[in-house]
Amino acid sequence: MRQFRKFSIGKAVEKIKKPWSPVELASANGQKLIVAIFEGEYKWHSHGHDELFIVQEGSVIIETGHGNVMLREGEGFVVPKGIRHKPRSEHAVVLIMSA
Fold first, then answer.
1. Is residue 29 situated within a structural domain?
2. Which residue segment(s) compose the domain that 48 sits in?
């Protein structure tokens, strides 16, 4: 039987030592739910799965070849699998993501 497990986004964020170093919150349906701090620019990349972004604190721009998406606190966006994208932010932003 699977165990019940409660998680805290705030406590997970406290464990993050540097930007772009995600911490796993939970897993469900074959996907991991992670929290990360983004600051600055990440490289262009794509995935073999959809990638979910939900902004917990701050704001981030997700650049794609199909246009840019600005996300603010409480907003989310799904980058479809195979789409090249590059997140960037001027200040530290806390994101919840699927992986």
1. yes
2. 9-98
